[in-house]
Amino acid sequence: MSFEQFDDKEKEHEGEKYLRLLGLGHLADRKIATASGTIQARDFLDICGEHARPILVGFETMSPNDPRYGDTKNALRSFVGQYIEGRQS
Amino acid sequence: MSDNETLIAPAQTDAIGMPPAEASYTYQRADGTVERAFSAEDAIARCPVLGRLAIEAPEQVNTLLELAALGKEKIEKENKEEPDKPKLEEKIEVEQEPKTNEPKKQITDTNTERTVKPEPVLEIQEHSYVEQGLATKPVNTATNHQAEPIMKQAQSEVTQRDVKETIEQTSNVTPLATQGEKTEISPSTTQPQVIVKNTDRRTIVDRPEQTDAFSHQQQYETDAVKPVVAELEIVKSSTIREPEPEIVLASDSNDTLNESYDESADLEGAIVAMPETEPTIAEADFIDEDYPRSELDLAPHELIIENEPEMADMQQKTEAYIDEQLRALFEPETVETYKELLALTAANQEGEPSVFEEATIVGPVLEADAETATPSDFEAFVATQPISEEPVTLEAIQEEANEQPLEQTLVQLVELLSGAPEKAEAETEENKLYAILQGIEDAMPACYIGQEAAETKPRITAEMTEKLLRLLRALGYENPKEVLVSFVARFDLAFLLQTLKYLCQLNNEHNRQEFLAVFSTFPANDDDDTRLRIGKMLFGLIAKLSPEPSV
User: Fold this and answer.
1) pLDDT at res. B20
2) Which of A80, B70, B404, B413 could bridge across to B408 with cysteines, CB 3.0–4.6 Å?
């Protein structure tokens, strides 16, 4: 797999996957402003990947039957949603 | 997001099962800022997305930390399983590189061709060369970054003449718009290399395989740092905003890093990086002096590890912060117990004799000594214990608790749970006990790390510690801390969690009735002690029930 393929199919999809997981898939195309320029919301992991990614990976593995699942999802959804909404360019 | 100034609620690094040293890591964001964190908690606190979360309940922080730990573990596992898969860091690097339709010209300096083919990293980075039209071959610098610092090896391979020649050769290369350049020295544990890219950053990366820090810029690790924080990386970054720097050369001169950068300043627009001597902290600082921090979009000084004392100081501060957050969440007794249990389990996991092994054991151990009383299955352990003839009550347990070891009390609790009627709505002592057990059950998932049953590792959390202390108080123990620590010291954490799991199952009304049927049946095994005990009990019953012989 070439790097472009990897870049297009896996990296971008990862952020989008988590957005969808949190019910924020509709925000994926939004443009958000960062210190290094404007990026798409689906690339939000570029900005905080080291922080958010483990949590999102962990959340992905969390069982929906876990009593904490709902609250955690709402919290993460709120955080990421606010972040994107607040940085829209 | 920035309007929300409610800081993240306090949480515990230890809650994610990692001692501070192991949890230490440095990370770098794609936007160029460099930060470090001694823990996932710290990382969350610094995260632009998660760092300003308004978290209502402290439990939510713990949940996020648990998820972070699980996620980190999974990411590391995936990275190990798929070593060829580029990391996010590398993906980010290439993504930020400019796309250009300009004709690409290759520059080949035969004097510097010392190419080594590393597997995953090189694959990506070579792509970067092609993409940027810079075919300068990476220089083989070192095979083991820990044994042979990359700077020293590179020093003997490239000369100043190479630098000038390459500058001349590259003078015909069309500059790439507004982009700067990026020089990366990336000595991985297997295939270190020097890489030239055309991006807006210079990078010196010393990346061991297990390091998952995202690094686009200068990163190196000094041996002096390692003893203090094993996995801590030192990251220095400099984002250069010069409009058209375009040449990256390697030098084998004996010049220091300082001098190399001086020369680069003389060559307008060109940046000469890759000094081969490992720069000292002071020299590294000098790099930053060349490019004022304010212009380089650097992280604040306090976020960059300068030297060993500072790291130690930072670690102490982090530990103090964690301790402070723990004490804000839990009672002092809980925190102290939790720390003792952590130390105890850590010592057990390392195979060292526990400091608690010789601690005073509260009360006599049941029949067998501690070693023989460590069954692999708590149910089997319960089955070997004598059953009291009279129904066990909570009052009786509370009265006897301080006179007997915890394991005996837990067996009595099993009997209580197995024989208890369905929960009444009234707020009785028993119902409080059931509620505590329910709380323990809720906190149980956090005590196991790993997704698959075979890989789960038991751990203690502050939340579980708190609930256990409440349980022991409810059972009548006056010194629950000592009792709990003693129990874990004599058995182990896994056994404690197994016991709790079993109790929680019994606490479920359905399981409680189910257990009642099972518990009355003695296991048919080859245990002579059990047979003897059953025989004695049967003879006792026969003798007691049989009519007295008439004279």
Assistant:
1) 40
2) B404
- One-letter amino acid at B327 equals R
Least confident of A26-35, B306-315, B347-356, B496-505: B347-356
Q: Is the CB of residue A66 less than 8 Å away from at least one CB of chain B?
A: yes
Binding-face residues of A in 1-60 toward B, CB within 8 A: 2-3, 6-7, 10-11, 34-36, 43-60
Q: Do B30 and A46 touch (CB under 8 A)?
A: yes
The answer to whether A58 contacts B69, with C-beta atoms less than 8 Å apart, is yes
Q: pLDDT, tens digit, for every residue of B483-518?
A: 888 888 888 888 888 888 888 887 775 444 544 444
Tracing tokens 């472009």 back to the chain, one arrives at: A4
Give me A14's structure tokens: 């990862």
Q: CB B63 to CB A11 under 8 A?
A: no
Query: E strands along B60-198, which residues?
Result: 182-186, 193-197
Burial of B420 (0-12, 13-18, 19+ CB in 10 A): buried
Query: Residues of B68-96 as b/e, b for ≥16 C-beta within 10 angstroms?
Result: bbbbbbbbeeebeeeeeebbbbbbbbbbb
Put simply, the answer to whether B70 touches A58 (Cβ < 8 Å) is yes
Number of Cβ within 10 Å of residue B199's Cβ equals 24
pLDDT for B372-416, tens place per residue?
Answer: 444 456 777 777 777 666 777 888 888 888 888 888 888 888 888
Q: Residue A45: what residue type?
A: L
Name the residue type at position B85: K
Taking 60 as the threshold, does the pLDDT of residue B110 lie above it?
A: no
Cβ proximity of B101 and B176 under 8 Å: no
| Complex ipTM value | 0.78
Closest CB to A57 among B29, B57, B74: B74
Joined tokens for residue B297? 């979009």
Distance, in angstroms, between B49 CA and closest chain A CA? 6
Closest CA to B401 of B477, B473, B474: B477
Beta-ladder partners of B183 = B196
Q: Which residues contact B524 (CB under 8 A, 6 or more apart)?
A: none
Closest CA to B311 of B281, B284, B291: B281
CB A54 to CB B445 under 8 A?
no
Compute the nearest-CA separation of B29 from chain A (Å): 5
Tokens of B381: 């352990």
